Amino acid sequence: MRLVSWNINGIRAVQRKGLFVPFVESLSPDVICLQETKAEQHQSEHVIEGYQEYWHSAQKKGYSGTAIFSRPTPLSVVSGMPSALVNKYSLHNDAFGNPNDEGRTVTAEYDDFYLVTVYTPNAKGDLSRLRQRHEQWDPAFLAYLKRLEKKKPVVVCGDLNVAHTPDDLANPKANVGKAGYTNEERQRFEELLGAGFVDSFRLFTQGNGHYTWWSNFSAARARNVGWRIDYFLVSRSFVPRVIAAEIHADVMGSDHCPVSLTLDI
Prior knowledge:
By secondary structure, the protein is an alpha+beta fold. The chain has a single domain, classed as Deoxyribonuclease I, Chain A (4-Layer Sandwich). Helices cover about 20% and strands about 25% of the residues. The protein contains six helices and 14 strands. The strands form three sheets. Strands 3-4-2-1-14-13 form a six-stranded mixed beta sheet, with no helix packed on it. The chain has a six-stranded mixed beta sheet with strand order 5-6-7-8-12-9. A hairpin with a 4-residue loop joins strand 6 (about 105-110) and strand 7 (about 115-120). The longest helix has 20 residues, at about 130-150. The protein is globular. About 40% of the residues are buried.
């Protein structure tokens, strides 16, 4: 079973460029997880057969949003996080609004695991959303994953908007303390790993030079001056089912590239 995750940065834009169908055909995923769809389902061209679509669009038009396209029929699909966690972690108190209304998670349940796709809030260039990330969103999201894991293993994928280690970005020293590479964001990612979630890509590939996002400026992608901020994390108990974890830097259409996970299912 092959799962693919892609921050598509606007599905309508990728479809207009004629790049969405080639992406599907080249990777042939059983499940496609998308972030930053920036659209509602009715605004997207229905150009691929054989997938059931589950969308969680932001209340704000043209912003954020996640979706899961699945060949196998999930046992259940849930958009967002439970209201109890939203209230416990005061997600609705963020100055930017309630991130749970921004279409940031979709969860699909399959026979052997839960699949959660996430578009984690960006801390912003001026770090104005860092406190919300550190004190509200990240703890709430980890609590949600732990709740799911009590029932069955969890696979988490998407744009987590954080580079974990110096190997995960081309210029770590120059970016210390900047959005995506603050101590606070990296600490919360470390807590995900400490809770038993495993960075699947690092099961197979070590070192730097492996990135999933590049700035649109200064030919960053051509020079491979990027960041690895898109992940597949899996419950530790599920690691024996992982066959491969890859980055597909040759797939164009977004400032991010897809990442994939192949499972023995």
